Amino acid sequence: MSRLILVTGGARSGKSTFAERLLQKLAPQGGTYVATAEAHDDEMQERIRLHQAQREASGYGWHTANCPLQLPEWLTEADGAAVLIDCLTLWLSNELLQAEQESGEGPELEQRLDARIDELLDVLAEVQGTFVMVTNEVGSGVVPAYKLGRIFRDAAGRLNQRLAARADEVYLVTAGIPIEIKSRMVQL
């Protein structure tokens, strides 16, 4: 049986550090770090380098898989593994940008994103293992000024809600403090 854990919070809240430590505790023998970021500039290259150095310094048996776009497809091969996905909103933004290049900003863009979210959820329902998934909480800020930003924010909100509904545990990380929130969820 799979164990799905969602870790959410704002930018620089400590989500990744918490998720790494959590997977290390759950799978002390080692795990796979699925990196979804793409380095399009020097600053992002440095961020990725720092994340890699932090993982290496931990002494944990990390195997890294770079997966900026084909996440559902990659996960079909991860059956039985201990996996940390960092992060789902980067994966979703990569999917959004690719879909925009191929189909523009019409209604098919949102349909395509929703289809990719469906594929991810379908795969997670089938594979076995421990999956710790990091995502950004993007709905607490201002409404984006541009259409593409609003499409992304709405799709990320749908992704997070659907994953949280399926997850066994959901953590909110704020100022480096993780709080388990799913067990405190109000049932209506």
Short key terms for the protein model shown above:
6 helices; seven-stranded mixed sheet; 7 strands; alpha/beta; 188 residues
Furnish the topology, listing elements before pairings.
Elements: E1 3-9, H1 15-26, E2 31-35, H2 42-57, E3 62-66, H3 71-75, E4 81-86, H4 88-103, H5 107-126, E5 129-136, H6 147-166, E6 169-174, E7 177-180
Parallel strand pairs: 1-5, 1-6, 2-3, 2-4, 4-5
Antiparallel strand pairs: 6-7
Helix pairs in contact: 4-5, 5-6
Q: Describe it for me?
A:
With 188 residues, this protein is of the alpha/beta class. The protein has six helices and seven strands; from the N terminus they run βαβαβαβααβαββ. It has helices spanning 15-26, 42-57, 71-75, 88-103, 107-126, 147-166; strands spanning 3-9, 31-35, 62-66, 81-86, 129-136, 169-174, 177-180. The chain has a seven-stranded mixed β-sheet with strand order 3-2-4-5-1-6-7, sandwiched between helices. β2 (31-35), α2 and β3 form a beta-alpha-beta unit. The mean pLDDT is 92. Pathway: Cofactor biosynthesis; adenosylcobalamin biosynthesis; adenosylcobalamin from cob(II)yrinate a,c-diamide: step 5/7; Cofactor biosynthesis; adenosylcobalamin biosynthesis; adenosylcobalamin from cob(II)yrinate a,c-diamide: step 6/7. Keywords: ATP-binding, Cobalamin biosynthesis, GTP-binding, Kinase, Nucleotide-binding, Nucleotidyltransferase, Transferase. It catalyses: adenosylcob(III)inamide + ATP = adenosylcob(III)inamide phosphate + ADP + H(+); adenosylcob(III)inamide + GTP = adenosylcob(III)inamide phosphate + GDP + H(+); adenosylcob(III)inamide phosphate + GTP + H(+) = adenosylcob(III)inamide-GDP + diphosphate.
